[in-house]
Amino acid sequence: MTQYESARQGTITQEMRFVANREDLELELIRTEVARGRMVIPANQVHLQKKLEPMCIGVAGQCKINANIGNSAVTSKIDEELEKLHTAVHLGADTVMDLSTGGNIDEIRQAIIDASPVPIGTVPIYQLVQIVKDPNDITPRMMLDMVEHQAQQGVDYMTIHAGVLQEYLPITANRVTGIVSRGGSLMGAWMLAHKKQNPWYTHFDELCEIMKAYDVTYSLGDGLRPGSLADANDEAQFAELNTLGELTLKAWEHGCQVMIEGPGHIPMHLVKMNVEKEREVCHEAPFYVLGPLVTDIAPGYDHITSAIGAALAAEAGAAMLCYVTPKEHLGLPNKDDVRQGVIAYKIAAHAGDIARGRKNARRRDDELSKARFEFDWNRQFDLSLDPETARAMHDETLPQEVFKSAKFCSMCGPKFCSMRVTQDIRQMVAAEQGA
């Protein structure tokens, strides 16, 4: 049975036990959240037999982050993708999506799955497009077969753009940036060429049977997500969301796990509304958002523009944040871009956990603040999200070991450190009170 079916029948799985211990939450809470579809445990049976460590995505648990990696037709090889995977997981990515669109896709994906302790996601249509001469030659049978092929490899969750329907294409005509989802645009072009409905939608029951057989989690894709602030909250975006709500119920009927993908580019004041609307329309299935970017004017810094929106989404109840790197809109991320994207999103997710009052969320912050006031520099580094960078920045100006216990840094120096002065004040006040 799938995790969803087991939970519905009152059965506790090993994966639920692992998640409960990992999240420090009651086991019954995990089971009931999975049973109601508000939490997923992406764990393909094939990947579980390797080195997968089960995790959960749901509003009752900690907010998670995903890192995208993968090659393109222009650049990247297996070793480079494995290096990106290691960087992402080492820095705390909870899941990784392989979005390879270049050569050796099967070989790259298998290497990633074999090496990964975190769930791996894919977008099956990408590989299908890569192996045909013309994307319009793709048939529904080929699409289903590709899903099964990737499930057999051990993919834990898949982005399926089943909500992009024929009737929604005309209402994207006046958009500033049109259809920005690669999977969404490919399905749109296919429907126009064949004058038929989206095969992911018409063959959804067959698709569910494949997903159920391996317990692959649906990540129902937002193929009509806004790619600019000008297109946010438009008719096309919400029409697709309504369809995703319909498909969520159908997937649950088949015993499949489901999460919903979200925008995109959204102004700050509309982020919370988007999270709340998804919860209402999609029956509280976990919301997995890309960013969202809250401004469009900062190419090269979109890990920042999107982390702002991601933090707001996390506070509002998004269950997972898909990172954006500095290379977004500009090129294929390298290892350093992955590092920056993961750190930015770990900050956003953690800020959301604190705001929502999740269990033990602020413990690390308080410990680091205590170490900071006590000038315990090594402890500060150890508690940092990125200890290597924190240590390097400190040592850039004060590298000697003696300065690891000094009561100042190079920002204020020995005479102007407010925390040292505060300690002196406390000693003077204590002395006066004692006298």
Word description of this protein:
Helices cover 51% and strands 9% of the residues. It has helices at 3-8, 14-23, 27-35, 45-48, 78-90, 105-115, 124-131, 140-153, 182-194, 199-202, 204-214, 235-253, 268-281, 302-316, 335-355, 363-373, 377-383, 387-395, 413-416, 418-434; strands at 39-40, 57-58, 64-69, 95-98, 120-122, 157-160, 217-220, 258-262, 287-290, 320-322. An eight-stranded parallel beta barrel has the order 3-4-5-6-7-8-9-10, surrounded by seven helices. It has a two-stranded antiparallel sheet with strand order 1-2. It is globular.
Q: What is the spatial order of strands in the main beta sheet?
A: 3-4-5-6-7-8-9-10
Total E-strand runs:
10
Give the distance, in angstroms, between the N- and C-terminal Cα atoms: 73 Å
Query: Gyration radius, to the nearest Å?
Result: 23 Å
Helix-strand makeup class: alpha/beta
What portion of residues belong to β-strands? 5-15%
Shape: globular
Number of helices: 20
The major beta sheet can be summarized as: 8 strands, parallel, barrel
Low-confidence segments: none
Mean pLDDT: 96
Into which percent range does the helicity of residues fall?
A: 40-55%
Which H/E pattern describes the elements? HHHEHEEHEHEHHEHHHEHEHEHEHHHHHH
